[in-house]
Write a structure and sequence with these properties.
Elements: H1 14-17, E1 21-22, E2 25-26, E3 41-43, E4 58-66, H2 73-84, E5 93-96, E6 104-109, H3 111-118, E7 129-131, E8 134-138, H4 139-144, H5 153-168
Parallel strand pairs: 4-5, 4-6, 6-8
Antiparallel strand pairs: 1-2, 3-4, 7-8
Length: 206
C-alpha cells in the first residue's frame, strides 16, 4: 500500500515571523545581561574608515566592550561606526582605531561598571553617561531600550550613541521644545521624553 508523504510544516504565522519588528525595523534579539561582568574592557581590534566621499573633520575613536558581556564586540563596533557616520549624526567623519591617540572611547559596560565609570554622576544601574573621554553605554539599556521608544531598541541604540558622544563633542542637555514635537537628541530621553516624540539623530531628515 502506498504511503502518503507527510506534508511540509506550515510557515510560522506572520505575527510570529515579524515579532522582532518595531517601528518598521527589525529589532535585535534580547539577551540576558548580568548586573556585573569582569570589570575590564577589551578594545575591539582593527580599524574602520570614515566615509570617503564626505567632507568634515576626522575624529579618531576607539570601541571597547567589557569582558564577560553577552554581545559580539565586532557587531557592537559596527553599530557604533554606522551610527556615528550616518548623515543624520554629528556631521564629522569618525574613524575607528584600536591604538594611538583618540578623542572618544565608546565603552559597552555592565550596570555595575557603568556606575563606577560614571562617578561622580549617579547612574543607578540604569543610565549611561559621558565621563572624561568615555561614552559609557549601559549594556542593560543597549539590550532593552526604554519605554518611550515602544520596543524600537534599534533606534534607541542610535540615540544613546549619538547622545553620549554628543557630550564628548561639547553638547549639553536641552529640554523638550514642546508637547508632540520631535525630541532633541541631547534631551535625556532615557529618563523621559517629557512629552516629545522620540528621536535618535542630531540632524533628522524632515
Amino acid at each position: 500500500m502506498a504511503v502518503t508523504p507527510t506534508p511540509p510544516p506550515e510557515p510560522a504565522p506572520e505575527a510570529q515571523r515579524t515579532r522582532l519588528l518595531a517601528n518598521g525595523r527589525r529589532q535585535p534579539e534580547k539577551v540576558r545581561v548580568p548586573r556585573s561582568a569582569s570589570g575590564r574592557y577589551a578594545v575591539v581590534p582593527g580599524e574602520a574608515a570614515p566615509p570617503a566621499r564626505r567632507k568634515g573633520k576626522v575624529i579618531r575613536y576607539v570601541v571597547e566592550v567589557e569582558r564577560g558581556l553577552p554581545f559580539d564586540p565586532r557587531e557592537f563596533a559596527d553599530e557604533v561606526h554606522r551610527t556615528l557616520n550616518d548623515p543624520r549624526s554629528w556631521g564629522f567623519r569618525f574613524k575607528r582605531v584600536s591604538r594611538g591617540p583618540v578623542r572618544i572611547r565608546v565603552s559597552l559596560s555592565s550596570p555595575a561598571l557603568t556606575d563606577r565609570r560614571c562617578l561622580p554622576l549617579r547612574t543607578q544601574g540604569t543610565l549611561s553617561c559621558w565621563n572624561g573621554e568615555r561614552a559609557v553605554i549601559n549594556a542593560v539599556r543597549w539590550n532593552q531600550g526604554v519605554p518611550g521608544y515602544r520596543g524600537d531598541v534599534a533606534s534607541y541604540r542610535e540615540y544613546v550613541v549619538n547622545h553620549e558622544v554628543g557630550h564628548g563633542l561639547g553638547h549639553g542637555h536641552v529640554p523638550c521644545p514642546g508637547p508632540g514635537r520631535r525630541a532633541p537628541v541631547m534631551l535625556q530621553q532615557t529618563k523621559s521624553l517629557y512629552g516629545c516624540r522620540p528621536n535618535a539623530w542630531p540632524s533628522p531628515k524632515r
